[in-house]
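quick one, 202 residues, struct below
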Amino acid sequence: MTKQFYSGLAVFAGLFLASSVFAQSTVKDYLSVSGPLLFDSVSYNLSWSAHPSDNYFKHEYLPKSADAEKFKQMILLEFIGGDFKPKDAVDAKVSELKELKKTNPVVNYDVMENKQNGEYILDFLVSENTPDGQHIAVVERNVYRFKKAEDASGRAGVVLFAVSSRAYGDDITRFLVALKTNRNEMIKAVAAYPIPDIKIVN
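---
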């Protein structure tokens, strides 16, 4: 694995507790998928985008009027260009989760492979503590679907479609209890979602 190859995957894998850190007056549609995206009967609008490296493009979508700093559910659509497979991206993400789990016992993950189409789903849980470290402030459950793809211009790479769900403070216990019962519902919904075609706009 070349250094450039690994660096690209590290960018793709390196985002946990996803949020739009900086407000944007204008959001660029790098993937030619401005939305809205309809998921589970909810409409999600493009709220934030970024182009962190030459081959990595990231969109975030939120329901109308949702607070980007305290959202309950977010859609992610990302593309990383390069000659690698979905499993490479999954392995890079899992490596980071393993490292994170050393200091955060809440971290948990499961990898599922669809051998018919080569796609992978990574279901994982992360958390963030209060500033004093005494309590859990945020729990985030992510279901990531990695798919080999080409954009409309023939640029090869991997597309990530994901749903990120959060709970805060007093809602965390109820969130985790519900997750034990309803975990597979989100996995099935993400696996079945028709990922939109993309076309990279630099």
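The longest helix spans residues 172-192.
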